[in-house]
Amino acid sequence: MVSRFAIDFILIILFIWWCARKKRRRKRFLNRKAFFLVAFLFFSVYILIPQLFGPLFPRIRYLPQLIEAHKLRLYYTGWATVIPGKRASRVTIEREIVVAARKYGLHPALVKAVVKVESGFNQFALSPAGGCGLMQLLPSTYYSLREGNPFGARSNLLAGTKYLRQLYNRYGGNRRLALAAYNTGPSNVKRYKGVPPFAEGYVNEVLKFYKMYKKAS
Predict the structure, then answer these.
(1) pLDDT at 29 over 70
(2) Any long-range contacts for 179-184 (C-beta under 8 Å, 24+ apart)?
(3) Residue 62 within any structural domain of the chain
(4) Using alpha carbons only, what angle is made at residue 214 by residues 210 and 215, rounded to the nearest 5 degrees?
(5) pLDDT tops 60 at residue 43
(6) Which residues share a beta bridge with 126?
(7) What is the pLDDT of the chain when averaged over all its residues?
(8) Could you give the angle at the alpha carbon of 120 between the alpha carbons of 65 and 71, nearest 5°?
(9) Total domains present in the chain
(10) What is the dihedral of CA 80, 83, 84, 89, to 10 degrees?
(11) In terms of domains, do 43 and 88 share one?
(12) Does residue 7 surpass a pLDDT of 90?
């Protein structure tokens, strides 16, 4: 993620420098002012604000992830988010769920239940915390698992199912702990030595749909 932010920063500086060269009289002033302004904005958004206000307002900690998620959705999907024909059909999504579940040794009904609760089968879903796609993976989590488009149906499902499998292995096959960690992060499971109170609703809802889908399959 740091490298991605660094690339953004360098590209913006180069663009401002190029614009400033067009205004030769103000070139030196614009270069200095723009550089410090952009540097301050990046420092504030990616470091200062999350660190200072994160403990008071937890969602602020995800501000860099949210910005990155919006950029990724714009880059990979463009107008596809508003063109129905560009979305994967429900049949296609369910077929990809089966493929991903079999690849990583999970029951398709469980993966389907996670997708239902996380995104409601919305391929282009984007959460306030920066969760992307069907399985609502943060950009940093997604790119730690695979490359490519985090909003693609197949790529998102493969990455999300792989992550869920990793959590299953981490917690010795304990389904409730794995789901809680998927939702709130392993650090919260460790902190509460079990399912955090604020994750109980999520875990119960996923398990409810899991039982329903499993019974129907």
Answers:
(1) no
(2) 179/114, 179/203, 179/206, 179/207, 182/114
(3) no
(4) 120
(5) no
(6) 132
(7) 79
(8) 25
(9) 2
(10) -20
(11) no
(12) no
The verdict on 91 and 45 lying in the same domain is: no
With a CB cutoff of 8 Å and minimum separation 6, the contacts of 99 are 154, 157
**Residue whose token pair is 């998102």:** 156
Query: CA 1 → CA 35, 123, 143, 144, distances in Å?
Result: 21, 23, 9, 10
Q: In this predicted model, which residue has the larger pLDDT, 69 or 105?
A: 105
Q: Would 60 be classed as within a structural domain?
A: no
118 has catalytic annotation: yes
Shared domain check, 45 and 93: no
For 148-198, the three-class secondary structure string (H helix, E strand, C coil) is CCCCCHHHHHHHHHHHHHHHHHHCCCCHHHHHHHHHHCHHHHHHHCCCCHH
Question: Do 46 and 87 fall into the same domain?
Answer: no
- Please measure the distance between the N-terminal and C-terminal CA atoms of the chain and give it in whole angstroms: 39
CATH number at residue 183: 1.10.530.10
The catalytic residue among 68, 94, 118, 147 is 118
Instruction: Measure the CA angle with vertex 166, ends 59 and 117; round to 5°.
Output: 50
Q: Are residues 34 and 132 in the same domain?
A: no
Residue type at position 129: A
- On whether residue 39 sits in a domain, the answer given is yes
Average pLDDT over residues 22-43: 56
Averaged pLDDT for residues 74-84: 56
- Domain hosting residue 185, numbered range: 82-216
How far apart are the C-alpha atoms of 178 and 158, rounded to whole Å?
17
